[in-house]
Amino acid sequence: MPNDRDVAAKLKIVLRQPTADELAELSHLCIRSKAFWGYDQQFMDACRGELTFAPDDLKSTHIAVAEMKGDVAGVAQFEIADGEADLLKLFVAPEAIRCGVGRLLLGWACAAACNMGAGRMFIEADPAAAPFYRRLGAQDVGLAPSGSIPGRVLPKLAIELKTESIRMNHADPQITSRLALAKRIALEAGTLGLGYFGRLGELTVTSKGHQDMVSEADRDVETFLRGEISKSFPHDGILGEEHGLSAGTSGYTWVLDPIDGTANFVNGIPAWSVVIACMTAEDTVLGVIHEPNANETFAASLGGGATVNDKPVRTSSATSLSQGSVGVGLSNRVDWKPAVNFITDLMSSGGLFFRNASGAIMLAYVASGRLLGYVEEHMNAWDCAAGLLMVSEAGGRIHRTGSAELLENGGVIITGGAGVFDAIDRMARGAFSLAAEPGLPRRN
After folding, report:
1. Domains recognised in the chain with CATH numbers
2. 227: helix, coil or strand?
3. What pLDDT, in 10s, does the model give residues 166-200?
4. Does 442 score more than 50 pLDDT?
């Protein structure tokens, strides 16, 4: 399938998740797009059910919105069952038809489904749209009855997703090049950190506040990361926990926590990580969390799925809090009592809590299905941006804070697998006295 990212980049098309408040607007876009092809009102009325979105779609399916110059230009939706994917909707606003939006959305759907383990993407195509899919590699596999028009049959097409080329062909080179760098320097920074970890008695440790420490290892590792990023992407901004913000002009800002879990590190506890994220004004586009002591590298890119040591991961499929543990974070920036209230509610509901003093590692464990979810009343961007992307890309749900807000002020963290998120979200909102947004499904 061809790559349309160059056109998308020129037109500044971005893919993002929809919110529940946008579903009516997206339904209207689908109806406008269908009507553009000249169908009469009777036909449109009969099809209306398949052209609209329901609130449950955010939980049970995967949806991406294409935005161009600030306006919604298209939407795609798919679901996965029994290792196969079905494209449920792909509609483009009439004014954006020749702008590459449809190709970009199809590429997203194929890449995302491939990363979730699907072997094929099935498409029951409107006859007017079937040539579009065929040009992009879809093969005819039969006919399918229309779900809304009795007696009408549709071409049934399929796209093979079994090769890595699907994932790579639809990856933004601006992101993939930065992701490759992030993985490399995370491993090298981890090796540097392990050198310090092996001679803890020689470290100078100072306190930044109650239960908040820093050593020369933190500063030196961050200096290394900054230097490597600046060599490869000199116009990118960099925000680090230890050395602050260096503004850039490219639209990309790297967010660094050289050693997440410093309290563990300086006390000889092998539960700390190197954390790297890269963000734009709209989104976190990549994240890497490297845990040197376990030799595990968690990584994710926007629309590219989540991995550990380059193997795809998924959030837990649990549907009950009694089926695992929920990570709980706590820092000196907030009162400890709300976290205790959350733990009380969690255990009263049959769940267990887990804490290892590294929020980044715990978010990575959510993404890989080891923890059911993770909550913390406040985290800074360098601690959580990478992990939140991983959870989203691994099929989980998150409480979303906008990029600008997260960079400037941090935010509340509520995450979980799709089957338990609602329960975690309800308890966290109660404990943190928070009117949280609805949890968002995986971001693509």
Report:
1. 5-169 (3.40.630.30), 174-312 (3.30.540.10), 321-432 (3.40.190.80)
2. helix
3. 443 445 677 888 999 999 999 999 999 999 898 88
4. no
